Amino acid sequence: MEQKRLPIFAERFAELRGDMTQGEFAEYLGISRPTVGFYENGTRLPDVLILRQISERCNVSADWLIGLTGDREICPSAIDLLGLSSKAIEVLKEMNTTPANQLVGGILPQVGPLLINRILENKECEAMVYFTNQALLAGLKAEVVDSSKKSFGSLAGFQQSLIERDEGYVKVPTRDAVRLYMRSACDIFENIFETEVNLALDKMLQDTNKVIQDRTGEIAKDPDVPQ
Questions:
Q1: Model pLDDT for residues 189-216, shown as the tens digit of each residue
Q2: In terms of C-beta density within 10 A (0-12 exposed, 13-18 middle, 19 or more buried), how is residue 84 classed?
């Protein structure tokens, strides 16, 4: 019996057929029925174009089909999904190899990703994004602020006017509106960053102490280590 060329592909390709006959599946994919049989038996492999066609019509990842991942869903890249630049992605990757983590054998959580996750998950992050978006919008038109119709001299007064949302809005110069919105966003970010950095550092220190204590205990129990 001829050995399957890529067993994982044959298995996952057959899984996609489900309750359809080979003929029905072949018509659905736009290939011949014998080809479906060859793929399921593992005696042939699709070329790149056919692999892409199978992936698109069955809405599964090509990487999943050939066994490179266990996730069958098509996952957009960070560039496509989040709008991150290639440079930003490289910086995030670098955060996964921190010297502190290497010193303790890779047991600690990565500080960079931990901090970024905490910042994005912080409940105040939504307000920061709101003010940033408002600053961008204000750059396109004169913004309405200050419900009292009096000139405002503080950020607090400006923010209060946004909260009240009554009928007393007046226009202010675009530049001032942008500056105030951005100041709000920056203040929120500073508060989030300070809070989450402290929490991340606390967690790192706790994990470090635990690792040191565990390893100290292992050394103490080692009969080959002089006591």
A1: 888 888 888 887 787 778 777 777 777 7
A2: middle
What digits encode the pLDDT tens for the residues 178-189? 777 788 888 888
Q: Which of 91, 90, 126, 96 is nearest to 109 (CA)?
A: 96
Has this prediction a pTM greater than 0.85?
no
How far, CA to CA in Å, does 153 sit from each of 14, 20, 130, 158, 184?
Answer: 70, 71, 22, 8, 14
Cα-Cα end-to-end distance for the chain: 63
Structure-token match 């280590």, residue found: 225
Provide the token pair at 187: 């203040």
140's tokens: 């396109």
The tokens of 38 are what?
A: 């060859």
Using the structure block, give the residue that is written with the tokens 């266990």: 70
| Nearest one of 187, 178, 99 to 139, comparing CA atoms | 178
Find residue 114's DSSP bridge partners. Answer: none
Q: Where are the alpha helices (DSSP H) in the chain?
A: 7-17, 22-29, 33-41, 48-58, 62-65, 78-82, 86-94, 99-103, 111-121, 125-138, 155-164, 174-221
Query: Over 80: is that where the pLDDT of 82 sits?
Result: no
Backbone phi, then psi, for 220, in 5-degree steps?
-65, -30
